[in-house]
Structure formats: C-alpha cells, structure tokens
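Researcher: We're teaching a course module on how sequence relates to structure. For the next exercise, students receive a sequence and then see the predicted structure as tokens, so they can try to spot secondary structure elements on their own. Here is the exercise chain.
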Amino acid sequence: MVSARLRQLLLAAEGGGALDGDDVRRGVADHPVCGDRVELSLRLDAGRIESLRWRAQGCPAAMAVAALAAKVLPGAALAAAPATLHAAIADHGGLEPAERHAEGLVVRALQAAGR
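Model: And here is the predicted structure for the students to work with:
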C-alpha cells in the first residue's frame, strides 16, 4: 500500500483532469501486465512545465504518483522532471517494490508528452 503521504494526495486527487488548448501536450503510458494507465496533459513554457493535469486508472500507486507529479512538477524543467519526481516520491515515503512501476508510468507519459 502507498505511504500515508502519497495516499493523502491520491484521496485529494489534486491536479486531476485534463488541460485544453492548442498548446497542450499529451502523453500516455500503459503497463502491459497489470493494465495501469496514466495520461498526462501539460503546458510548457521555455522548456519548463507550466501546468500539468493527470488521469489515471489502475492501482493506487499509479494515481498517487500522477497526483504528486501535478503537485511538484509545475516550474520544473521538462528534462529534470524525472529526477524531480523521483526525489518527491522519496520525500513522500517512497514506493514498495510492487508499486515502483507507477513512477515509470508517469515518467514514460512525461517523455511522450515532451516529444
């Protein structure tokens, strides 16, 4: 089960939803085994994430990490976003081994949106 701090983010579902507009980039990542799915929509400004919204389905960890991304990544450089997210996950209690795929899903969705 996700840490208490990550669970709070999951329950609050901050940043949930999608952004609209021609300048919005979208990225999706699926886990082929468990079926988890993360969709991110983000707006960039000079290589930095201006805003980020998420939709996720599957395990609580996938949803919690997506919510954490929406909280900590605005203002971060897109290139530094995976490291920023990794540090934030650690600061929020980390993930159990069976939950670590959630971080990878969000990172892959970020990479897809950045293309």
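Model: If you want an answer key for the exercise: The chain has a mean pLDDT of 95. The first strand starts at residue 24 and ends at 30.
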